[in-house]
DNA sequence: AAGGCTGCTAAGCGCTTGCTCACCCTCCGG
DNA sequence: CCGGAGGGTGAGCAAGCGCTTAGCAGCCTT
């Protein structure tokens, strides 16, 4: 099992999870959930991947669902941070949209294992955890919508349906986590560049407008 | 449980499944798989929704996985038919792309319960069933790529990366099944129209070019 | 009326699941 | 040298899983 994709890239993921054994369990859970899905993953599988006995899991986490919640929370925090950073940055709306799509897609491709769990296992969360996460997603939506609205107001974009286009842009980016494969021909950077171009076309912005 | 979305629209879905009890079980399975996912759905749940005992399921299907395979096969056949019909139709490349995206998205929205199972439960299939389905998906990809290549050759489209754009277009359409909600504000037709417009912009076709 | 086929159920088998519990290391301040 | 706390294990429990089997009602044919 290769997890190089999670440890490269300059920043150390999951560094906020301590102690060490809790982090190893969480990383093992991310891999297992991404491969087989939350419901098809057993606590024995997670513990085994982390090199521990099944009982060890319950020293650090109350339930299997708490593990998913921690993963989902940390992942959504990161995704939201990426979008809000791009949305509130300097430069033109086109430049900010380019940066938002590019970095958001880059994250989904480079960390597609994590992203797959974060984006596709929402329904497995307990109701109170689910609504907490849904609120974070609402804020992600708002960040993208703000860029589009700014671009329309500034005359940079031609977007007849801002909420609908916001939905489509986020949907397009999120779905990268489903199909992206490290064995494929494209690097995360290439996919980010391709998608940024496609999205700028969707909003009717000239390609050169993205150069802030 | 309301299944009006599966019975409206002029064509009768699952009519190819007989006898009646087998169809009722299959429809029940579609609903259950879409709501909770394949692995989280029990055979008792499926049988209960169909108003039968758990054992009744095994008269018509050998295993729970065979149910998923039948659903996936029928759904993929329908999806492929929609794309190939549009791809080999008359008219300009822009007109065919418009029709393909519009009808493909319409199907994913109107039958989002079925589409969710078809598009997101692929990994739960047994290896030999999975590769059969993957072949159908390869042909869907080829149908869209053909339209894009035709448009580029005819000078209608400006698409620097045909395989990448094909992937993005299909990904965008497929993901409709994940977020579409009958309680939402948009009708399947409206989403189809919106997405057809967005995709035509992605390939650099003038909106009026779609009018064959 | 008899016989057999079809479609279904009640009961339950063998197994796996999430999770618990009694116990045991290792480290560390006094 | 001790005692307790934190991190770990082996064994196992109750519940739920996919699936099987024995048996039975209703209907078609003869």
TrEMBL record, chains A, B:
Top-rank taxon, per record: Bacteria
Gene3D superfamilies: Tetracycline Repressor, domain 2 (1.10.357.10)
SUPFAM superfamilies recorded: Homeodomain-like, Tetracyclin repressor-like, C-terminal domain
PROSITE patterns for the chain: HTH_TETR_2
InterPro entries assigned: Homeodomain-like_sf, HTH-type_TetR-like_transc_reg, HTH_TetR, KstR2_TetR_C, Tet_transcr_reg_TetR-rel_C_sf
Protein keywords: DNA-binding
Pfam families noted in UniProt: TetR_C_24, TetR_N
Domain HTH tetR-type stretches: 19-79
DNA-binding region location: 42-61
Transmembrane segments: none
Lipid metabolism is among the record's keywords: no
Stated name of the protein: TetR/AcrR family transcriptional regulator
Taxonomic source organism: Streptomyces flavotricini
């Amino acid at each position: 099992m290769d997890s190089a994709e999670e440890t490269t890239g300059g920043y150390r993921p999951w560094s906020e999870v301590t102690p060490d054994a809790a982090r190893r369990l969480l990383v093992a859970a991310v891999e297992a959930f991404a491969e087989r899905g939350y419901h098809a993953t057993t606590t024995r599988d997670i513990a085994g991947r982390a090199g521990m006995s099944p009982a060890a899991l319950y020293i650090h986490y109350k339930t299997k669902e708490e593990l998913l919640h921690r993963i989902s929370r940390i992942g959504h925090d990161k995704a939201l941070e990426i979008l809000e950073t791009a949305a509130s940055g300097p430069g033109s709306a086109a430049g900010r949209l380019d940066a938002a799509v590019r970095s958001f897609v880059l994250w989904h491709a480079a960390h597609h294992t994590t992203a797959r769990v974060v984006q596709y296992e929402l329904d497995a969360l307990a109701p109170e955890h689910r609504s907490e996460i849904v609120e974070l997603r609402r804020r992600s939506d708002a960040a993208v919508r703000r860029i589009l609205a700014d671009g329309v107001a500034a005359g940079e974009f031609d977007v007849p349906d801002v909420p609908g286009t916001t939905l489509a842009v986020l949907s397009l980016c999120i779905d990268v986590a489903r199909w992206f494969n490290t064995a494929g021909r494209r690097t995360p950077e290439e996919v980010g560049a391709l998608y940024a171009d496609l999205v700028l076309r969707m909003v009717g912005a000239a390609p050169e407008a993205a150069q802030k």
